[in-house]
Write a structure and sequence with these properties.
Blueprint (H helix, E strand, L loop, with lengths): L7 E6 L3 E6 L3 E6 L4 E2 L1 H14 L7 E6 L5 E2 L1 H10 L4 E7 L3 H12 L7 E4 L2 H9 L4
Parallel strand pairs: 3-5, 4-6, 5-7, 7-8
Antiparallel strand pairs: 1-2, 2-3
Helix pairs in contact: 1-2
């Protein structure tokens, strides 16, 4: 899936990820190839989202592409599991590798955030599902 550049705002790029607001209604986080997501990465991501996308106290559905990561620490998973209620109304995790699927299934099975979380291998279906949570 290619995102329409005309619908991207508040774009932020760093060494490990790119994030942006898509069509003014979905937060997108795309982790770069080979990244091992640490607790610090997770904390930084959540803090950035709160400070830059949730400035109007509105919760946005969030698209997270984990397709190319090499791994995620247990501490990072805990940060994400415990923080999503403050930033997201729903969470779509996009994965491709067997490793990412295992991690995603663990993440979704331990969901204590109270928000809908769903695992996808198809980016378009993930965005379509998130559109159901746009308010």
């Amino acid at each position: 899936m290619k995102f329409d550049e005309n619908k991207i705002s508040k774009r932020y790029e760093e060494a490990k990820r790119v994030s942006f607001l898509y069509d003014n209604k979905i937060i997108c986080v795309l982790w770069k190839e080979g990244v091992e997501i640490s607790k610090e990465d997770a904390e930084h991501t959540m803090r950035y989202s709160l400070e830059n996308y949730n400035t109007d106290s509105k919760l946005y559905p969030t698209y997270v592409d984990l397709t190319y990561i090499s791994g995620m620490s247990r501490d990072a998973r805990e940060v994400f599991q415990n923080s999503n209620t403050g930033t997201s109304s729903a969470l779509a995790l996009v994965v491709a590798s067997t490793f990412s699927r295992v991690m995603g299934n663990i993440f979704t099975s331990m969901n204590q955030s109270g928000i809908p979380i769903k695992l996808f291998t198809d980016r378009v279906l993930a965005i379509e599902w998130l559109n159901e949570f746009v308010h």
